[in-house]
Write a structure and sequence with these properties.
Elements lengths: L1 E6 L4 H4 L13 H16 L6 E4 L3 H13 L7 E3 L16 H8 L1 H9 L36 H21 L4 E5 L1 H12 L17 E6 L2 E10 L3 H12 L4
Parallel strand pairs: 1-4, 2-3, 2-4
Antiparallel strand pairs: 1-5, 5-6
Helix pairs in contact: 2-3, 4-5, 6-7
Length: about 250
């Protein structure tokens, strides 16, 4: 069984160094090229897919589209779900990361940004950043819509989709690409590699770098091997860039 995870390319709000979360910004020109480059890496590896899963946010959707175009595989079925969305950053959404650090201090910002179980302050129910005010979530029960999330919250809401949708595709013999976000993919990698709560805050997932997993056919939750595609120095540089975003 083969599973490939692909974090979206740089978005316009990544470029501006803003907390993005569920805000639906597009890719920057750099992000578009990162997505295409990820597609070229997968094509060079000889990868093909039977289905792609994305979040409902445009930066993940376009990353999948651009990568698959490089592979001449834009025809494959696509499934989108809010459970693959980025972490909701609550009242931090739209704020500059460095200015937030200067205002609240390193310790508080690190707790909000990288701890496993400390969510940022909740966004108000009437805020345009609350998903209850976004038509794409109108059919969902109000109690599943987050006003803020920590990584543990993302882990808990992502796992049902993994088990009910993605694992079903893997068991059916389908080769799966998941194009999603830094925190939804961190949550999935935590599950796949059994990373502890204490260690998962140190995991940085670079933008536009395909992460290929070979899975046990009898247990798609158990990786046999995994590796990130591309030049190791470039992969590390991208991961370091993610870590430096808050200054």
């Amino acid at each position: 069984m083969r599973l490939v995870l692909l974090r979206h390319g740089e978005s316009e709000w990544n470029k501006a160094n803003l907390f993005t979360g569920w805000y639906d910004c597009d890719l920057s020109p750099t992000g578009e090229e990162e997505a295409r480059a990820g597609g070229r890496l997968m094509a060079a590896e000889g990868l093909t897919f039977d289905v792609v899963h994305t979040s409902v946010l445009v930066r993940a959707i376009r990353t999948a589209d651009l990568a698959l175009a490089e592979m001449d595989q834009t025809w494959i079925p696509v499934r989108r779900h809010w459970r693959l969305n980025e972490r909701h950053y609550g009242r931090l959404q739209g704020l500059d990361k460095k200015k937030t650090r200067e205002k609240y201090g390193d310790e508080q910002l690190t707790a909000w940004r990288r701890s496993y179980d400390v969510p940022p302050p909740k966004v108000a129910a009437k805020s345009p950043h609350h998903p209850a005010n976004d038509p794409r979530y109108a059919a969902l029960p109000p109690d599943v819509l987050p006003a803020s999330e920590c990584l543990k919250d993302v882990f808990d809401r992502m796992l049902p989709y993994w088990h009910d949708a993605i694992v079903d595709d893997l068991r059916a013999g389908r080769r799966v690409l998941v194009a999603a976000h830094g925190n939804s993919l961190r949550a999935l990698v935590k599950h796949l590699l059994n990373i502890s709560d204490a260690k998962i805050p140190k995991l940085e997932i670079p933008t536009g770098v395909p992460w290929m997993f070979e899975l046990d056919e009898s247990d798609p939750c158990r990786p046999i091997s995994h590796r990130q595609l591309g030049d190791p120095d470039d992969v590390k540089a991208r991961a370091d860039a993610v870590a430096r975003q808050a200054g």
